[in-house]
Write a structure and sequence with these properties.
CATH superfamily of the largest domain: P-loop containing nucleotide triphosphate hydrolases
Number of domains: 4
Largest sheet: 6 strands, mixed
CATH topology of the largest domain: Rossmann fold
Strand order of the largest sheet: 2-3-1-4-5-6
CATH class of the largest domain: Alpha Beta
Strand content: 25-35%
Number of helices: 14
């Protein structure tokens, strides 16, 4: 019987040139974790090139790193102690590569934070300390490196320990230990240093082995973000498989499940995975697929959970801490793209509670968060999302913000916010308050045009005949003498969507523009018809709110379970014949008293 050894992910962080790569190279060499002959080969290569040997050369495999002499991405290395197996993540130290460091450290269970004894504490040293607190890493040791450059002076070490401990205390971070080392010479790496007999706190390897592992991810409530849905049609295979990576927890055949934020419920029918025998269970960190008892429509981005366990929060507002790395500052009321697991939604900076400079902890109440600053922010998403508070479940409590196609910030969710106020509601209130109207009332317009105004949204999946029906309806109403106009959402010229934005934000902008345009045209007394593909209940509700107080009628072509039944005014079969569809919509307009006689106005 093979006993599986314990493993641990450890990230190495610190200011540029403080010796991270040297530290990792020395750990690999001293624990015998390098491939046979690797150390000798690098030493021989240095000799041939008349170049002094550095342990960092063992890791400098990327050409960009060799050219610039700095680590620009996370490099993963492996070594073993007598207690456990380690994956060491050597993270970038240069300030320009903080986002790479954060992505590398996101899955770390422990951290070694390096400070150069000769150079002392740098601003980036403080930022890195804040990031460890920010990411929730509790197993931390501070290594004061290059002690040989200060003559192994205990006073230098104690001064750095005192100053840095004071800073860490202010951000509520307590390291397990401080260790004076000279990584290049191996002092206090895996054995005690004869040059520093005054240090009694153990070696780097001792401290690593003393770190306690968190509870296994399998013991947390089940969370699997839906990556995609696959359907196979060959040989009569009718399975619809929901696929994704299990972030935490475990699940088995027969378990009752719920998809969030939609709230759709089902039961696990089978566990599926590529090219392997049948299984009945799935566990954390596995990429897996499931089938379920009842066919329901699920979209990527949902989170699959077990009904019997504590469920994530579902709301569109939350409080979070964010570390900003964007070239442009994060500003209030601007819309960004939020990515939390597989969920991608537009998010608005609703309020900036406070701003903190991570290097000196200076606090301010500025309306923006500059690069390398930390902010406590109230965020509001376009539609409800599912998430956990980070202290309950880190995998579903972390997120990133995207600005202009680049990851510009990383955040942790502190608490959900449940209230009825929204950015959209505030926008509509301001718009209506400032709206100047003439003496021509909606009733006068209706009397003149012999119809009331309305927005008619013809929605459904792609290739269901929506646009054909919409254009036929426009022609029929026009021939009846009505003031009617058809506008397809794909009309980018009218909607003025920005090509510089990504798909998620472009769609959001298009819907906002549509809602505002609809409000303008219906306020002018027109009947506006639009056809929309790939819209859900929340996006439809946003258009309705923007068009208020004017009337919005929804026609759904084909079955589409993304809509709540009460939000649809008329259902048409997929690719229904134009004349029949138009007649049904005209009947709807008559029943809704949009098409009226002068005596009904």
């Amino acid at each position: 019987m093979v006993i599986e050894r314990e493993g641990m992910n450890v990230v190495i962080v610190g200011h540029v040139d403080h010796g991270k790569s040297t530290l990792v190279g020395r750990l690999l060499a001293d624990t015998g974790s390098l491939p046979d002959g690797k150390l000798e080969a690098v030493q021989q290569q240095c000799k041939q090139n008349a170049k002094p040997f550095e342990y960092a050369f063992l890791l400098d495999a990327l050409k960009d790193e060799q050219a610039q002499g700095i680590t620009i991405d996370t490099a993963r290395s492996f070594f073993k102690s007598s207690k456990r197996d380690y994956i060491i993540i050597d993270a970038p130290g240069h300030i320009e590569f903080l986002k790479n460091m954060i992505s590398g450290a996101a899955r770390a269970e422990a951290a070694l934070l390096l400070i150069d004894a000769h150079e002392g504490i740098k601003e980036n040293s403080k930022r890195h300390g804040y990031m460890m607190r920010f990411l929730g890493i509790k197993n931390i040791a501070v290594l004061v490196n290059k002690m040989d450059l200060v003559g192994y002076d205990q006073k230098v070490f104690e001064k750095i320990k005192t100053d840095y401990s004071q800073f860490l205390a202010e951000i509520d971070l307590v390291p397990k230990s401080f260790i004076p080392i000279a990584a290049f010479h191996g002092d206090n790496m895996i054995s005690g240093s004869k040059n520093m007999p005054w240090h009694k706190g153990g070696t780097v390897l001792d401290v690593l082995d003393s770190f306690k592992k968190e509870a296994p991810l399998d013991q947390l409530p089940f969370r699997m973000p839906v990556q995609d849905i696959y359907k196979f049609t060959e040989d009569g295979d009718e399975r619809r498989i929901v696929a994704g990576r299990v972030e935490c927890g475990s699940i088995k055949v027969g378990d009752d499940i719920v998809f969030l934020p939609s709230g759709k419920k089902n039961r696990i029918k089978s566990v599926e995975y590529f090219n392997g025998p049948a299984r009945r269970e799935a566990f954390a960190q596995e990429s897996i697929g499931f089938t379920y008892d009842t066919e329901i429509y699920i979209r990527p981005g949902e989170i699959l959970c077990k009904s019997s366990e504590k469920l994530p929060h579902v709301t569109n507002k939350f409080r979070a801490n964010i570390f900003w790395m964007g070239k442009q500052p994060l500003i209030k009321d601007k819309t960004y793209k939020l990515k939390i697991l597989t969920q991608q939604v537009p998010v608005i900076v609703s309020d900036i509670v406070q701003v903190l400079d991570a290097s000196d902890l200076a606090s301010s109440r500025e309306p923006h968060v500059d690069r390398y600053e930390v902010g406590e922010i109230i965020f509001e998403t376009l539609k409800p999302i599912a998430f956990d508070v980070v202290v309950d479940s880190a995998p579903t409590g972390r997120f990133v913000l995207v600005d202009n196609y680049e990851i510009a910030g990383g955040g942790i969710i502190l608490a959900p916010i449940f209230d009825t106020d929204s950015n959209l509601k505030t926008h509509i209130q301001k718009r209506d308050y400032n709206w100047e109207r003439s003496q021509i009332t909606p009733q006068l317009r209706a009397h003149k045009y012999q119809h009331k105004s309305a927005l008619i949204v013809i929605a459904g999946k792609i290739d269901t005949g929506k646009q054909r029906i919409a254009k036929a309806l426009e022609e029929a109403l026009f021939n009846l003498g009505k003031n009617v106009y058809f506008l397809g959402v794909s009309n980018r010229l009218v909607l003025a969507t920005q090509d510089s934005k990504d798909k998620v934000l472009s769609k959001y902008d298009a819907l906002i523009h549509l809602g505002e345009l609809a409000h303008l045209m219906t306020d002018a007394g027109l009947i506006l018809i639009t056809s929309i593909t790939d819209i859900d209940h929340y996006e439809l509700a946003m258009i309705k709110k923007l068009n208020n107080p004017n009337r919005t009628l929804v026609v759904c072509v084909g079955e589409d379970s993304r809509f709540n039944p009460e939000s649809v005014d008329l259902m048409l079969v997929e690719n229904e014949e134009s004349d029949a569809a138009v007649n049904k919509i005209v009947d709807l307009l008559l029943n809704a008293v949009v098409l009226v006689s002068e005596y009904e106005i």
